[in-house]
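Forwarding these from the shared drive since the link keeps breaking.
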Amino acid sequence: MTESGGQEQSRWITTVIMSTGLQNHEISTVLQRQQHRVRYSESVEIGSVIFSLSGVAFILADTQDVVMRGEEQFLERIQKFINIHRNSFLVLSAALHGPQEWNIMFRIQRRFLGSNLRIIPVHNTAETVKLMLTIAKMTSKPCADDIRYKMAMTKAHIMENSPVWKTLQEYQLHCN
């Protein structure tokens, strides 16, 4: 399904707003090759990828950049980002997530515990694009509505066919 309400099942195309710093980034190229409408903005946080129709925002970071540029400055950027975006994700990239990378992730999690930030470790561009598109698609209105409907139908089906549910109903009839 497309976000515009079309019925095409295999293709999902949306508009993506990216910081101008990502204009020549591999992620931008991949999204454009997949026919997504990529727009660039200087007014969004550096490293941001925003799916406005889905209501999700991602900030991309490499663990080595966090180490080299200073963790405190990076954490301030994250704080600014989550203050603006209600449904925010930090996509933390590393070729290998070793002890140093996990330690960085742990410190970030501890700092933003209880906030609306979710941290996702990734290894490469393909993985990054796939996860961003999956999350954006699942949170887009038509798809989210479809998921809610299917969950409600599944719940109703389970309740109707559950032996435990039937036993509870029989027990209730005998108690009355």
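-- next protein --
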Amino acid sequence: MPKKDDDAKKPASEAALDQRWKIQVFYLCFYGFMTQIRPGESFITPYLLGADKNFTQTEVTNVITPVLTYSYMAVLVPVFLLTDYLRYKPVLVLQSLSHISIWLLLVLGTSVLAMQLMEFFYGITMAARIAYSSYIFSLVAPSRYQRMASYSRSAVLLGVFTSSVLGQLCVTLGGVSFLTLNYISLGFVSFGLILTLFLERPRRSLFFNRPEGAGDEAAPAELDKMAGGDSGGGTGGWREAVLCRMLRELGALARQPQLRLWSLWWVFNSAGYYLMLYYVHILWNEIYPTTDNRRVYNGGVDAASTLLGAGASFVAGYVKIRWTLWSELVIGVVTAFQAGLLLLMNTTRNIWLCYAAYVFFRGSYQFLVPIAIFQIATSLSKELCALVFGVNTFFATVLKTIITIIVADKRVLGLSVHPQFYVYFGYFTLLAVVYLLAAVSTGIKHSCRKQPAELALAKVPCQLPAEVPVQDKSLETGAVRA
């Protein structure tokens, strides 16, 4: 009888867990969607340069915007560690508070110092994005992670797209001022803070809050722990042993050609991509310095680039080629294409052509991102994968900071936006040349390896080995078939 009762209870327990998982999925996706609704975000640069704030282009380009890169560099490692140590939710709360600070400063701030502080909080929100993407690791079982990652990513992209479209409709059709749009954004990010407070705080995380004796195995699904009320055990020994071992493994991983190649792509290309992203709105304002807010189409362009990026990411999942042979060529061709788009953006006086080049630039970058993630993560545990991406992002941020200090900061070169884009064009051109030369080298090596193998096969006579009699060979074959 007890066994029969257990069997009867098991389906009910599984159904309750399944229902709980679905609720978690829905809430986390709804949270990811709503926290992206900031309709004023696409119009921050024209707002700063317009009559509302009346900052000069030099102030925005060489004094205010560089603070974003410096801030991101300063907080990236602490936020990365605190995210895991504090188990995600406190960092998500910090992100929401930083979003509120951004829009309060945009609405109320009048000085350059206030706008620099705004960019500082922007850097915190960017560094804290890892908390949302990592949160799902500890909430669902490994078998459900791929689906959950897909749902949450789709929710974020849909939120960005909706936010951009909403902002553009408000400006173009509704005649809403940029100031009013920032008040609307402030309302949405305040609502996002309320949503954050209702997120469940996991009891486990990838590094600092592992269950005792977890070793290399994945931690149990956090929902199971929440439902069972498990409080967890000590983690000091694991932290000292496994983190050190994983850091040592990074050196060994660097010897894997594909992982090394795509990690280098992540470092160098993402640095250039985000520099372009930070300054392109200033470029648009210089090419098309309109005083009519209804003719500023930043939101529509951001929406189009988000849509194309999502489509390119989807298509990339179906590209089936021999990546060990063709990776360098694919990266080189895409990077050369991006260099051409940067040159077009910087030399054209047609704003629509500049918009189109920007959309294709972002789409081409987003096409390679899922390929890079797959090539890097395919042979790694999720803990080591998170560490590799963290290290790659850190080095990309260091490189981005160095370029910003030299090129954009007024204390060094302090270039205006057009010379900056020539620098970015040269940067991507150099990367494309290096990648294409690597592709030629890989092709030559492959041909050299292939030709001796073909010659060796051609010289081998088509006969049975002397030590195996024909009759015995036939018997062996018959035995295998039987």
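The radius of gyration is 27 Å. Confidence is low (pLDDT under 50) at residues 1-9, 213-240, 462-482.

- D.
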